[in-house]
Structures are given as C-alpha cells and as structure tokens.
Design a protein that fits this description.
- It is a single chain.
- The chain is of the alpha+beta class.
- It is built from three helices and twelve strands; from the N terminus they run H-E-E-H-E-E-E-E-H-E-E-E-E-E-E.
- Strand 10 and strand 11 form a beta hairpin.
- The chain is globular.
Length: 189
C-alpha cells in the first residue's frame, strides 16, 4: 500500500472519529468491551472491563488471560473514584509499516503548521501548532521522539515515532498511536 493511500486512511479515520464524537453529543472511548465516559465510577468501569480485562495498579488495562498479556490502554480516576482519563492503544501490529505511515502523517502535518523552536532541559524541541493539531520533535543523546496530537475539542489522537540509540547502536524505530479522553492531571508527573 502506498504512503499516500495509508495517509488517506489515517486522516479519513481521524475525520470520521471526530465527526462521530460530535454527532453523538457526548464523548466516549471504547476500550475492549467497555464504552467509557469521563465521570463514570470506578465500579462501572471495572464491571465493563471484567469480560477479559483488568486494571493494573498503575492504571494500565491488560488482558486478564496470559501470558502474554495484551495492553489495550490505561485509565485514571479522581480521588473520589470517578474516571478522569482514558487512553486507548492503537499501535499497529506491524511496526515497520506503522512507522512508515506515521512518518508520512508527521511529514504532511509539518507542512501545514508554523514552527516555533523551544529550548527545554538542554534539548532542542520544535513545536508546530495549527488550532487543534500539534506536531513536535524532541532530540536528545538517547534518540528522537516525533509526536503528533490531533485534538477535536474533547478527545486527542496521539502518534509517537521513536527512534533511539543505545551505546551508539541504532535501535529500530517504533510507533505508538493512541486515543485519549479527559485530563490526566498530575498522574503523569
């Protein structure tokens, strides 16, 4: 499949995703068998995931049968037990093809946005922003991270392309694609 066709599929999926979110009047993320919405109780989330998945202490949602365990996303709850963040894993099983597609999307989005270099913690970070889409790159001695966030007002689609080196040996690049809803707040820090 050509990169243009793959890019069209990715952008078409993002557009359909955005339109379906708006059409329903509320936002949700499907995680395995569960349809999750911000503000749900922990008990309701656990009950919906019970048919094959469990929430780890760190918030990761994994298959309950294994090994190998399949990671499908993560959740975070407020102190009063309400869902405040949900993230769905969309990583492709074929990482080589996935990286080529994500690179095509990354390169396309950098063409429609303006660059603004930002020095941060001894690294050069260039962030490009266009209303509800941001594209950034972080270069360090450990490798590079190219990141895309596409935001529709309630959900975010994120694409990470990681290229790293360890002891001056190249590590094959990987791609991670995820969908998130809500605010992770201090849980990421």
């Amino acid at each position: 499949m050509s990169r243009i066709v793959e890019l069209g599929i990715v952008l078409g999926t993002a557009l359909a995703f955005s339109q379906s979110s708006s059409a329903t009047g509320h936002s949700s993320v499907t995680l395995g068998p569960a349809v999750l919405r911000i503000g749900m109780t922990r008990a309701a989330v656990v009950a919906q995931l019970a048919a094959g998945y469990e929430i780890q202490p760190n918030g990761m949602v994994v298959s309950s049968s294994g090994p190998p365990f399949k990671f499908i996303g993560s959740v975070s709850f407020s102190d009063d037990g309400l869902l405040r963040y949900v993230q769905r894993d969309w990583d492709p099983s074929d990482q080589t093809a996935g990286v080529a597609t994500a690179e095509a999307l990354y390169n396309a989005l950098t063409q429609i946005t303006d660059a603004a270099p930002i020095p941060r913690d001894g690294q050069q970070q260039s962030v490009r922003v266009c209303f509800s889409c941001s594209v950034s790159i972080i270069d360090s001695s450990k490798g590079a991270l190219r990141h895309i966030d596409i935001f529709d007002g309630s959900k975010t689609i994120s694409v990470d392309i990681r290229g790293a080196s360890a002891n001056n040996e190249a590590i094959p690049p990987t791609v991670m694609i995820s969908e998130s809803l809500g605010d992770l707040g201090d849980a990421r820090r």
